[in-house]
Amino acid sequence: RVMSRLRRSEHQHQMPTLTIERQSEPPAGVTHVSLSFSLLPSLSDVPLPLKWVTQECVCEILTFFAGSRKFFRSEIRGKAGVACLKGNVIEGAKQILNLGNIPKFEGVVVEAVIGEMLRLPSTEHQQVYYHATMIELCKLQSTIHPPLGAAINYLFDFLPRMQQELSDRLLDWLSFHFSHFDFKWLWSDWSRVSDMPHHALQRRFVHNLLER
């Protein structure tokens, strides 16, 4: 009704045409927002803003302790003792666990680290850095184990549809991770692979995992 009255008004205004120029770089102060990696259905009830902020903090901590400091303010980079923190995986894991203040925090952390580990086309840091971080997280906080186990099972179920690059990374990670925990795992959950053909991806995956 309002629009119809405006059309009948004696005073008509011609709106100018707006041209928005394409920018090759974002304006100053605007940061890139990365895509969110979702793996655990149990996190669906975690408020997205809280989940996103926490996972971004996890990624920043990983970047900081990996020694990539160019994204941080100069007053942080120049602090005394910062240089010696490069590669300190234990301290990095402690700082990640100190973030905990949201529901299902451990699952959010697991999803963030695995998301970075499986990032395509390449990871920000060396694969072994993520492997070592996950091990330290498990050693420091036992409540990491349940969501990590769920994540591993989801990835295992997804193997037939997974890109070869990702399945290779998954194999490298699990062989490294399981070896640090005496290969303790609920192998009965994967016993079904023994009934699969020898060429089945999941059967070959378990075979290669146990051979490493």
Automatic annotation (TrEMBL):
Protein name (Swiss-Prot/TrEMBL): MIF4G-like type 1 domain-containing protein
InterPro entries in UniProt: ARM-type_fold (IPR016024), CBP80 (IPR027159), MIF4G-like_typ-1 (IPR015172)
Organism: Hemiselmis andersenii (Cryptophyte alga)
Gene Ontology molecular-function annotations: mRNA binding; RNA cap binding
Highest rank taxon of the organism: Eukaryota
Domain MIF4G-like type: start-end pairs: 104-211
Gene Ontology CC terms: nuclear cap binding complex; nucleus
GO biological process: mRNA export from nucleus; nuclear-transcribed mRNA catabolic process, nonsense-mediated decay
